[in-house]
Specification:
- It is built from four helices and no strands.
- With about 80 residues, it is mainly alpha-helical.
- The longest helix is centred in the C-terminal third of the chain and has 31 residues, at about 45-75.
């Protein structure tokens, strides 16, 4: 039987990965000696997948909006406002 520590270790490694911690940091904390152990202990949860995709969609939406604004200014002949120093 693996026990609670083993289950907690899987959870810890998963949460570290979802938080953006680098592989070396995770390996050090989990005391893994090889990178091959990371996929065995890190389990991508559905909520993490949703957050990642939502973040990408938000960035793309902002980029699309900026592009549309620039295209509209070009179409109407309005230049960028001068920078105030």
């Amino acid at each position: 039987m693996k026990g609670r520590w083993h289950d907690d270790r899987h959870t810890l490694v998963t949460e570290l990965a979802e938080s953006g911690a680098g592989d070396e940091v995770i390996m050090s904390i989990a005391r893994h000696v090889s990178r091959a152990m990371l996929p065995r202990y890190s389990h991508v949860r559905m909520e993490a997948k949703r957050r990642a995709l939502d973040e990408i969609a938000a960035r793309q939406g902002a980029a699309d909006e900026k592009w549309s604004e620039q295209a509209e200014r070009t179409k109407t002949g309005v230049s960028e406002p001068a920078m105030v120093q």
